[in-house]
Amino acid sequence: MNTLSPAEWRVAEEYCKGLADKEVADKLCRSIWTTKSQKKTIYKKLGISNSTELLLYMISLVSTKNVDD
Description:
Number of domains: 1
Largest sheet: none
Radius of gyration: 12 Å
Distance between the termini: 23 Å
Order of helices and strands: HHHH
Structural class: mainly alpha
CATH architecture: Orthogonal Bundle
Shape: globular
CATH superfamily: Winged helix-like DNA-binding domain superfamily/Winged helix DNA-binding domain
Number of strands: 0
Helix content: over 70%
Number of helices: 4
């Protein structure tokens, strides 16, 4: 599994807040096409296929980090 770039992490975090493509793009001052492309790359790198899986992945990271600390 490839790691996400800092820009991809920001996009993933915004999607996990339940924002739509346009809302993420507006919040990060990017075009909607850039945001959608990054979302597709995130899904590919993480081996997931939808926003629910992205949310579960991010929750598992936070849970694992809290247990390890």
